[in-house]
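Figure 2 data, in text form.
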Amino acid sequence: MITSALPRLCGADMEVPLADGTLHRYVNLDCAASTPALEGVVDAVTAALPWYSSVHRGAGHLSQVSTRLYEAARQSVAAFVGARPGDSVVFVRNTTDAINHLAACLRVPAGATVLATEIEHHANMLPWRRLGPVEYLPPPASPQALLDSMEAALRAGAGRVAVVAVTGASNVTGEVMPVVEMARLAHAHGAIISVDAAQLAPHRTIDMAAMDVDCLALSGHKMYAPFGAGALVVRTDLVADAEPLLAGGGAVDFVTLGDVLWTGMPDRLEAGSPNVLGAIALGVAATILTEVGMARIAEHERRLLARIDEAFARMPRLQRLRLWDDPSLDRLGVVTFTIAGMHHALVAAVLSAEHAIGVRHGCFCAHPYITRLLGIDAVAANSVRSSLQRGERAGIPGAVRASFGIGTTEADIDELVSALAQLLDVGPQLEYRQDEHTGDFHPVTDARTWPVFAGLPSLDTAGHAAGCGQF
């Protein structure tokens, strides 16, 4: 293993309470949702804090320093994704923010359509509906099947498809998409390609120039920089004349009572005071990942994935959810599964309360994809919708997802495997009760306490859980 060569994460040795009150090392297998911060990122933000000030328009020395740090972060992100000289790096909140900005700013001909797939995250599905009609390709049986269906749709579109909007890697099942080939097809039929790289960026090398990708979105909170910043990297000519999604200071050159002269890129899409510290965190994370080497990170994760694949194959009641079964195809460290006869929320609760293992459960903001993987037809989907409208969540379908990154170790994988083996063999060791309002399960007897932070009100167990278990 190469874990000794990988940078440390903040909270790597964190201990958390189990339901019986004892402490146990926390096993974080929820990296596809959000990653801990790199220690180097935390150090950089701490060092930048005394220098924090306004950017771009301040004459003071601190403003000049902050401006230089902010623009240096922009250069770092550009280098990380292999941006071209004609591309703009726009700092936003996250991938969702980036794609919403892009969909609002692109100008397409009347009658133009967007081509996407059913496996997309909601962030790469909902914003495009505002741009025009969206055609969704069904989950493909293989990369070649995806390319074939995409080419057929582009041909049938006869030049009307303006944007091909695809994920770089599935956040549900981890398969890496054939982005280079998809870009080639899109351009051959007069469309641009926009890639949701939220999952891809922390795990695989991205070279927008070599891949011929027009637009790319990513999130710092999935790249070990959870300080509220993400990036949209876009061909400047595609949005240079667009009215920005957000109107305000910083996005303009001159304003009268009846008119506005928008400024150039990237400031045009960064109205308001930017998240300088978040941008610095993202830029430093990009530099650290580049220095470590994305190929080394990928190899580390593939070793762990092979280890968990081998163990899961020995658990017949554990049903794996996959897009492609071919083991030779590239897949991120994402393992999604269900256990026969056991609610997905209960599995996640047991892993947390009895083993201090953090996983994700539910539908992972990809409802069309996960419902298809679970075999939920239109009738059942309508029933789910009706239940949600009534405020009933106890029967909401879903799965369990374990996902990992540079901080994950073989010991983490073995702990998950051991916990699941015990769960399959003897069931939960505690009594659990389901919250009908959230769908989550909680131990009937729970000795866990929650940390209190100065300046913030404390929440009881019910308050802490109120935002969990969303479909």
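Caption note: Residues 464-469 have pLDDT under 50 and may be disordered.
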